[in-house]
Structure prediction request, 197 residues.
Amino acid sequence: MGFILSLIFLLLILSLFLSKIKEGKAGKLAKLFRVLSLVVSISLFTYWFIKRSTVGIVQNSISLQLINKLPQTLDFYLIKVNKNGSLLPLETSHVGKIRPEYYRLEYLNMKNSDEYWLAGFLGKKNMVYFSQHSVPNKNMDQMIEVQNYLNQSEKLSEKAKKEIEAYNYENMFAGIWVTMNFLLIFLNLVLILHRKN
Prediction:
């Protein structure tokens, strides 16, 4: 996604510079380019937000019901361990914050994997729960109740912590790109819709 965001950024910056050209054939081509870059940018962001907002039901997946039985709200991450030969050996996703006595439902495509890890954080950096789970039967849904503070493996939990930090850093970096692109979309829209009185 980072490459697409940087490409949109460059298109929108170029559109801003082309807003200075207003006369003749070059002005018409510049305006056409600006309109097309805006349409492409807005379409990509609309698709991205709709895709991220829909429920993540995946074909041929197992469902994981994660229940928090602890007295505090925990922020959970799931790391899917892919088999050798996959593009991503570890695939991280944010399950979300789960309050006490509440649950979250996740759908996992386990085509290239038969193991996943769960990490629970109290605050931003304090990992208070880590467990490793295997999926012997991919036709059977999973239910996990987090009933106590647990760290099944110090070595794996340190690896998971690094993966989660990298995942959060990538999301923060993408958030900065998205914010800058939205600002440029707004500026380009104002310049295109602006009429001289």
